[in-house]
Amino acid sequence: MWRRVTSLSPVMSTSKPTSLDQAASGFKIWRSSFSTETPTMVKDGTTSFKERNPFITFVLGGPGSGKGTQCQKIVETFGFKHLSAGELLRREIESNSEHWSQMLNTIKEGRIVPSEVTVRLIQQEMESSDNNKFLIDGFPRTEENRIAFEQLLGLEPNVVLFFDCPEEEMVKRVLNRNQGRVDDNIDTVKKRLKVFEILNLPVIDYYSKRGKLCKINAVGTEDEIFEKVRPIFSACGMMSHYFAF
Ligand SMILES: Nc1ncnc2c1ncn2[C@@H]1O[C@H](COP(=O)(O)OP(=O)(O)O)[C@@H](O)[C@H]1O
Ligand SMILES: O=c1ccn([C@@H]2O[C@H](COP(=O)(O)OP(=O)(O)O)[C@@H](O)[C@H]2O)c(=O)[nH]1
Ligand SMILES: [Mg+2]
């Protein structure tokens, strides 16, 4: 059984009709096949996952800032379940799922896939995991993503990491990543940096105001950066009687 929830944020209908306005919504036909109106749907029974009291970390930062690299280290040291939103989307594309070509195109263009798709994939992974500590890497990318997640799951992150990295360094890292990704090229990375600034920074600001943001200078070696990350989770471990940590 499905019920309606209140509408998502106005990011989609911002009054600035720039090309970046299209970044999160430039897929009108595709979008309409997910939902024909602003309100979205939520499945009854999701509260059972909320009752598990999961520990949720959102991991944010521009393209190439080192999110995935640091997540791997956090997994090894603190035993989290790592969910990369981009990886989940790439997996959907590879499995030729419905709308795979629109998703591929969206990623090639550095735009943002509709929240309905991404939140569903993240939710499925979380609900089917035995682990109760989650690193959600590269999500939420927009205020609309953030609100969709919080409304559909009824949960907020406990901590938000932000890997702060100069653009020049991010571009260098992306162009050297060498993983055969369709978006690791100079044209897409330039678009992604704009999308990051316009759509993702407001999310980062939001969590900063909520006192949940841990901003980490992402320049240095991988190990140096991890030494700044480690105390954040060591401190959470000490609060394990509050969280299912
Ligand atoms: N501290 C670092 N210094 C130099 N290169 C790094 C560092 N951290 C990650 N990298 C490299 O930069 C590229 C992008 O890192 P990645 O973790 O995929 O970033 P993100 O997930 O934020 O896009 C990868 O090739 C990775 O090996
Ligand atoms: O919540 C998300 C996460 C990723 N993406 C898309 O997937 C791409 C790659 O994301 P990923 O996090 O893998 O990139 P990274 O920042 O790690 O380079 C993004 O540019 C978007 O096009 C998206 O639409 N929504
Ligand atoms: Mg990544």
From TrEMBL:
One Pfam family from the record: ADK
A GO term for molecular function: AMP kinase activity
Origin superkingdom: Eukaryota
Keyword tags: ATP-binding, Cytoplasm, Kinase, Nucleotide-binding, Nucleus, Pyrimidine biosynthesis, Transferase
Catalytic activity: UMP + ATP = UDP + ADP
EC identifiers of the protein: 2.7.4.3
Database matches in InterPro entries: Adenylat/UMP-CMP_kin, Adenylat_kinase_CS, P-loop_NTPase, UMP_CMP_kinase
SUPFAM superfamilies: P-loop containing nucleoside triphosphate hydrolases
GO biological process: 'de novo' pyrimidine nucleobase biosynthetic process; pyrimidine nucleotide biosynthetic process
Similarity comment text for this entry: Belongs to the adenylate kinase family.
HAMAP family: Adenylate_kinase_Adk (MF_00235)
Protein name (record): adenylate kinase
Species assigned in the record: Populus deltoides
